[in-house]
Amino acid sequence: MDRPVASRVAALSHAILPFTRYLEDSSFFERSSDPNVNNFAFGNPQDMPLGAFVDAITNAAQPRDKDWFAYKLSEPESQEVVAASLRQEFGIPFEPDDIAMTNAGFGALTVAIQAIVDPGDEVVFNLPPWFLYESLTVNAGGVPVKVPVDLETFDLDLDAIEAAITPRTRAIIVNSPNNPTGRIYPPETLERLAAMLTEASHRHGRPIYLISDEPYRRIVFEGNTFHTPLAFYPHSLMTYSYGKVLLTPGQRIGYIALPPTMPDRDQLREAFRVVQLSGGFLFPNALLQHALADLDTISIDMARMQGKRDRMVGALREIGYDVHAPQGTFYLLPRSPWADDWEFTKLLEDHDILCLPGTVLEFPGFFRISLTASEEMVERSLAGFSAAFDRAKSEASPVTIAGANL
Ligand code: PMP
């Protein structure tokens, strides 16, 4: 039988099915650039880019020497910028050689997972997850093991994680501040998790790595503090993206950082380089690396983001939605008034509102709002959120559960 594509691709397309199903089933593609639509679906900017970002890349586009646009690996200047920034942020003596520059967060996760996971190795992550952890794991031959978070607090369910660890467990992905719950995991949770992983690593005779996926760590609301798992557990790999704090997800730069306490860092550094070269030159481009010293100091306006969060949480609660205030990230995760979140987001589409059904995030019964929408969209959408809520309360959820067929 003629097989036009690799069989591995079938497993990968299954792993991203909820995501592709949403794109096909919703009006996202037709309507996402319609100026009348209030687009809360993904973390894409709905305002013009930051002027400081444009200045930084414009400046970096001027060549200073003949090698300006030559092949670039993890450039020493970039590694130094990141290490210095991390040293300042966390007081941990990060070393430039322990930084691998990547194509933003996807790239960092890809390289990290490919470097440590053998076929059959288990990778634990928490539900609701970022929807590509599964395909990145499957692509490395790994086996995803999914553990729901505590539904009351959205904190990690440490007992459930402990029960999920086996001799095949190779890594756990921890995402704080969390997309989509907005939860920042507290030091006590990270301490207990570290003790549990240390004990399980000894018991099974090989390290369980913690991949700390922290692309939102600079997007933290007032009164909250981010704690990096790297400070608690030496076998940690940090993955980071500049795409969130700059709100430029199409300009791809990020990194993997190893703490100086990581026991196997020589082998890991080398493994990252091998994976990046053999994986298809998985390094960020020259221009973004030249701009990095400037980019590292820039951020979206967090006061504005906080304003949007407060306005939206307050208004949604007044309408009657059950929604908590996130500690970080730019997402809200209200409960869907209909048990079928897929149908409810379709109802919102009728009111010119695009949101992501929780089913896509393996978290049915909820839906996600991305506050990367403009203030104008926030204000304009409230009547629609209200009308959809009233209708959902007065009519039973439709019988066809589209999301359940995934
Ligand atoms: N991890 C998480 C938790 C994310 O939400 C995202 C992006 N939505 C990524 C990683 C990937 O980030 P990037 O697109 O900047 O590579």
Short description:
This protein has helices at residues 8-15, 17-25, 28-31, 51-60, 76-90, 104-116, 133-139, 158-164, 187-204, 265-278, 286-295, 302-319, 341-350, 375-394; strands at 38-39, 99-102, 122-127, 143-148, 169-175, 209-213, 236-241, 254-257, 331-332, 353-354, 356-357, 367-370.
How would you describe this protein?
The protein has 406 residues and is an alpha/beta fold. Helix content is 40%, strand content 12%. The chain has 14 helices and 12 strands. The chain has helices at residues 8-15, 17-25, 28-31, 51-60, 76-90, 104-116, 133-139, 158-164, 187-204, 265-278, 286-295, 302-319, 341-350, 375-394; strands spanning 38-39, 99-102, 122-127, 143-148, 169-175, 209-213, 236-241, 254-257, 331-332, 353-354, 356-357, 367-370. It has a 7-stranded mixed sheet, with helices on both faces. It has a 3-stranded antiparallel sheet with strand order 9-12-11, with helices on one face. The protein has a two-stranded parallel sheet with strand order 1-10. β5 (169-175), α9 (187-204) and β6 (209-213) form a beta-alpha-beta unit. α5 (76-90) packs parallel to α11. The chain is globular, with a radius of gyration of 21 Å. The mean pLDDT is 95. Bound molecules: 4'-deoxy-4'-aminopyridoxal-5'-phosphate. 4'-deoxy-4'-aminopyridoxal-5'-phosphate is lined by residues 43, 104-106, 130, 175, 179, 213, 215, 241, 243, 249.
